[in-house]
Each structure stands twice: as C-alpha cells, then as structure tokens.
Amino acid sequence: MCADKPKLLDRARYSLRQRNYSHRTETENTYVNWMRHFILFHDKRHPKDMGEHEIEEFLTHLAVVKKVAPSTQNQALSTIIYLYEKVLGIELDEIQAMRPRRGKHISTVLSFDEV
Questions:
Q1: Per-residue pLDDT at 2
Q2: d(Cα 84, Cα 44) in Å, to the nearest integer?
Q3: Which domain covers residue 12, as residue numbers?
Q4: If you compute the radius of gyration of the chain from its CA atoms, what whole number of angstroms results?
Q5: Under DSSP, is residue 96 helix (H, G, I), strand (E, B) or coil?
Q6: In sequence order, what are the residues at sequence separation of 6 or more whose Cβ sits closer than 8 angstroms to the Cβ of residue 73?
Q7: Which portions of the chain are predicted below pLDDT 70?
Q8: Angle at 17 between CA 97 and CA 9, to 5 degrees
C-alpha cells in the first residue's frame, strides 16, 4: 500500500466533510464508528472485498445477537450504504437482512373517574 494514500476511514471522514455532513455525524459516535464495527466484525477485511452478503450478516447480527433498536440498525445500514456508494464508488443491490422487531406501544386510557 502506498504511504501517501489515505486510509479508508480517513477517506470517509473527508467525504463526509466535503458533503457538509454534521460534525456529529462524522465523529466516533456515528458513521465512522459504524464503519469500524462493520470492518472489525468481518475480521478487518476491506469493504471492497465484501458485498451484500457480508452486509446482511452484519445487520442480522445486530438485530439477533446485539438486539439493537430498529433505528440503530437503520443508522448502521445508512452508514454502510454511504461507505460503499460515496466513499468506495460501489453500487449495491438490495439488502435483505433480518430486522429487529419494534416494541409494542400500549397506550394508557383513563376512565372518566380517573380523569
């Protein structure tokens, strides 16, 4: 690897800055962090050597093993799509991954006497 070529996560940070994403989106709490988790989940394989199957494995792992909220899984998916399409320039097909179930919200209804 060439010494002057920026690393993948540095390229991702630069790309986020170029597109005027919020600094919080770039920081360790969101996009860059999810990119790092994705790469580490697949034993530090470069994303260009992976595809939809590996993305689906990662997202399913988040839903089934980590039991993340649906919004968290959606954030991870958005990050990975950004990584592939904007940073690496790779177009992805449709991603089919197990989605976490949303919790049931039971509304509270008060009787006339309780009000």
A1: 53
A2: 16
A3: 1-115
A4: 18
A5: coil
A6: 59, 62, 63, 97, 99, 100
A7: 1-4, 26-29, 99-105
A8: 55
CATH code at 1?
1.10.150.130
What is the pLDDT at residue 93? 86
CA distance to 91, 105, 109, 111, per residue, from 115 (Å)? 56, 21, 10, 6
Residues 30-53 as b/e (b if ≥16 CB within 10 A, e otherwise) read bbbbbbebbbeebeeeebeebeee
Locate 59 and state its tokens. 């997202």
Q: Which residue has the tokens 């770039």?
A: 26
Q: Retrieve residue 52's tokens.
A: 């939809």
How many structural domains does the chain have? 1
pLDDT computed for residue 27 by the predictor: 65
In the chain, the N- to C-terminal Cα span, in Å, equals 70
Q: Could you give the CA distance from residue 14 to residue 17 in angstroms, rounded to a whole number?
A: 5
Counting every residue written for the chain, the total comes to 115
CB 63 within 8 A of CB 99: yes
